[in-house]
Specification:
Strand order of the largest sheet: 3-2-4-1-5-6-7-8
CATH topology of the largest domain: Rossmann fold
Enzyme class: hydrolase
Subunit structure: Part of the signal recognition particle protein translocation system, which is composed of SRP and FtsY.
Strand content: 5-15%
Organism: Aminivibrio pyruvatiphilus
Catalytic activity: GTP + H2O = GDP + phosphate + H(+)
Number of strands: 10
Subcellular location: Cytoplasm
Distance between the termini: 26 Å
Helix content: 40-55%
Order of helices and strands: HHHHHEHEHEHEHEHEHEEHHHHHHHHHEE
């Protein structure tokens, strides 16, 4: 998401930074491009107008235009105003001091509400004992979907009895169930509609009066653009929302909802779904989002993913191999598995500052299929072959290719790339500022240097 907007902004800022001194007309020209990019990203035009005026007020000041680095200062101003637009600080989920904490999950049908409910429960499960409750009694499929997702994620589930049609009875039963089994967080997956009608709103209002909830969280599809802002406004008017969760933020939509929803409604965006897996949920951080929109990367997000990867235990094995300057195909397989845990490779690479501007290394070059093929090749080898690739001759290469569903050429390429990495492994600790380059073609691209 935001690819088109990021490319436009990068072009604007590159022009500004290339000039030694800026005039007010230079700033006006740049802001016209910023305005056009935001409108193309489906941001509400009133929000765009307010944002651009705020940027201009600061950017044409004497301190900026007469500074040594005016282009950089304008870039910093745009970043700060974008961050302010989306909310200066992350807004954490509220946990009630007197359990249970009750989250009323609301939203339209098809917006990702049921999946998001389980994602939040799983995110909280490290320090709490959540219970998800099926409150959509009109669609039996919704109850079954929630039950299956909860079971897969090892999260507590409560649903209606056969033939039960009173949603308030289900809520009361869920509260008793949670109390008996010490669940301290209850997430109510409510009914959705294609539109925000009065019948739906009255049902949700009745549930809110029954509890009342700790949080009223609206799940909106980030790919619906300005329509998401209208939906948020309608729900907020009736239910007094406490937070918004954006689903499908990893999609290909223009992303205007992420930029405008807080400005229009006053409700903070608390979380964002960034993938299909039940663990693909992030705390929404306006500063990090602004960095990614502007092509500045997301170093903090990347560090968190690396930390999570390291916590899984594989990093210790890799570190031990590095210490011994011994690199086998088993180590290479482990690295592939560690990288996959970080999420889609192109999304991870976008977190690296300046990655989108790297010549010949766009997201199209990062091929997850190539990594899966490489893993299959290694997994088709015997333990002896993984630890001592020198024994892999012609007949073995044909057997490995057949076992992995690839070709002898693919096996040869992987072994050649492994040999490059093995040599680099011995020198890794001596590289200093030169960094470490992954072999060309390893992920289907042209290689990449880490520093």
């Amino acid at each position: 998401m935001f690819d088109a907007l990021r490319e436009r902004l990068e072009g604007v800022f590159a022009k500004l930074k290339s000039r030694g001194k800026l005039s007010e007309s230079d700033v006006d020209s740049a802001l016209r491009e910023v305005r056009r990019g935001l409108l193309e990203a489906d941001v509400d035009y009133k929000v765009v107008k307010t944002l651009v005026e705020a940027i201009k007020t600061r950017a044409v000041g004497k301190d900026v235009l007469e500074s040594i680095t005016p282009g950089q200062q304008v870039t910093a101003i745009v970043y700060e105003e974008l961050s302010e637009l989306m909310g200066t600080e992350p807004a954490p989920l509220v946990i009630s001091p007197r359990p249970p904490s009750v989250y009323l999950m609301v939203g339209l049908q098809g917006g990702g509400k049921t999946t998001t409910t389980v994602k939040i429960a799983k995110k909280l499960s490290s320090g709490h004992k959540p219970l998800v409750v099926a409150c959509d009694l009109r669609r039996p499929a919704a109850v079954e979907q929630l039950r299956i997702l909860a079971e897969q994620s090892k999260i507590g589930f409560f649903g209606p009895a056969a033939g039960e049609s009173d949603v308030l009875s289900v809520v009361r039963g869920a509260v008793r169930f949670a109390s008996e089994r010490l669940h301290d967080v209850i997430l109510l997956d409510t009914a959705g509609r294609l539109h925000a009608d009065e019948e739906l709103m009255e049902e949700l209002a009745a549930m809110k009066r029954q509890l009342p909830p700790t949080e009223v969280l609206l799940v909106v599809d980030a790919m619906t653009g300005q329509e998401a802002v209208k939906v948020a406004s309608a729900f907020h008017e009736k239910l007094s929302l406490t937070g918004v969760v954006l689903s499908k933020l990893d999609g290909d939509a223009r992303g205007g909802a992420a930029l405008a929803i807080r400005q229009v409604t006053g409700v903070p965006v608390k979380l964002a779904g960034v993938g299909e897996g039940t663990d693909a949920l992030e705390v929404f951080d306006s500063r990090r989002m602004a960095q990614r929109i502007m092509g500045m990367g997301d170093v903090m997000g990347l560090a968190e993913k690396i930390r999570e990867m390291a916590d899984s235990g594989g990093a210790e094995k890799i570190a031990e191999s590095l210490k011994q300057k011994k690199f086998t195909l088993e180590d290479l397989l482990l690295q592939f598995e560690q990288i996959e845990k970080m999420g889609p490779l192109d999304k991870v690479m976008e977190m690296i500052p300046g990655f989108s501007r790297m010549k010949g290394m766009g997201s199209d070059d990062l091929d997850p299929k190539r990594m899966k093929q490489s893993k299959a090749v290694i997994q088709s080898m015997t333990r002896e072959e993984r630890r001592n690739p020198a024994v892999i001759k012609g007949s073995r290469r044909r057997r490995i290719a057949q076992g992995s569903g690839t070709s002898v050429q693919m096996v040869n390429q992987l072994l050649a790339q492994y040999e490059q990495m093995r040599k680099l492994w011995k020198q890794f600790g001596k590289q200093g500022d030169k960094g470490f380059r992954l072999p060309k073609g390893l992920f289907g691209g042209g290689g990449f240097r880490f520093k």
